[in-house]
Design a protein that fits this description.
Length: 464
Amino acid sequence: MAVMTPPGIKVPGDYIESVMISVKAKNPAEPEFHQAVQEVLDSLRLALAKHPEYQSVHLLERVVEPERVLMFRVPWFDDQGNVQVNRGFRIEMNSAIGPYKGGLRFHPSVNLGILKFLAFEQVFKNSLTTLPMGGGKGGSDFDPKGKSDNEVMRFCQSFMTELQRHIGPDTDVPAGDIGVGGREIGFLFGQYKRLRNEFTGVLTGKGLGWGGSLIRPEATGYGCVYFADEMLKTRKDKLEGKLCLVSGSGNVSQYTIEKLLDFGAKPVTVSDSNGVIYDPDGIDREKLAWVMDLKNVKRGRIRDYADKYKKAIFMPTDIKLEHNPLWNVKADCAFPSATQNEITAKDAANLLKNGCKLVAEGANMPSTLEATKMFLDAKILYGPAKAANAGGVATSGLEMSQNSQRLSWTREEVDNRLHKIMIAIHQTCYETAEKYGTPGNLVNGANIGGFLKVANAMLDQGLV
Ligand code: NDP
């Protein structure tokens, strides 16, 4: 059915194009932010045709503009007594449906554009969880790798000394992300408590003995596998017996592997920034425990896996290659769980050539726009990050609820809630894709489903 465009309103395609041109002009040299906005706006074409009211209040121009961007100096002393200076950020993107919520990333590649892409994605992801959380993201170009615990602590204390004046349990609640795990959250929380003289749920991912939630460390990986299971059910298929590729070897990868094993699947790869491990025998529970000790306690490199398990092959990272050998291993399912743009068009071609039937994104925006298009065109089961990895932030939301009630729920209770939330997110994406005329396209389903709730809240709250 043709949709009438009211007078004075551009057709959605023209409107979206003009917003995209302005985003690129106003945010130069931020390719990841452009990419994230482009993907969402492409899907919104379908929604805007039905909702001209959004255009008349310039809703897209407002949703792509962060409510607030904080950028600050983080000076600290290293173990030799030298002064080090890093840059800290917090992007408070959108608070239409709740306090800003989203992780902190400590990695040398961190810059304003990367955090803006992550904050933008977070807005729609948080909306999909059905919990009342706005979107934010932050971090620093600090690299925790190779630093002593004392150096990490001094950095975290300096970072929080500035950040504390901008956050709070009803304002902005950060969590972990790449390079920010339990150790860092502990140091950050300690400094917040000391400066503000209050013990509140200002961060999630806290330790179990001081306000943390059971299942929060596992949540992103577990949730991603629950989402994959839901996708497979729509084709009367299941994870049992499936060969699975997992990238990364950090928090998301570890618990993706654990849940895949629970479902009877066979994960065969892990990686880090130095290279890829392929273990044709499969990564079983004993090997996973070894990886967890290597990464979380010894803070070692994944290449050591091949010394320990002789049948495994290590393929070092080769920056001259325009593809990642991990995605060229023959398998049924892929769980990218390391970082953005880790699946290029060439990687996507390799996955499809080898018969991969499912991609569930644990990492944020791991597929380039070209790779995403290839998965959609091939009509494989494709779970985009903002839906498939929303279990982490959903469980952070559950941690906030427990903190407010001053209660702790059991492991089973949190896991059950997480599972139900992932089923609901899949259903929203699936039904929204169908309703807007692109059945099976969960990218459209997630983008439109996440957007509508935020957009309607913004309409209700006036021009703020
Ligand atoms: P971790 O720091 O625990 O692990 C990250 C893993 O990815 C490490 O193995 C790391 O290797 C690898 N990696 C990171 N950057 C690069 C890079 N530029 N090139 C190659 N490998 C890289 O982080 P998480 O597991 O928490 O996060 C992984 C992904 O999941 C990120 O995209 C994050 O945004 C996303 N995510 C995380 C959530 C969470 O709850 N933690 C929630 C939702 C999404 P190395 O050690 O060599 O750097």
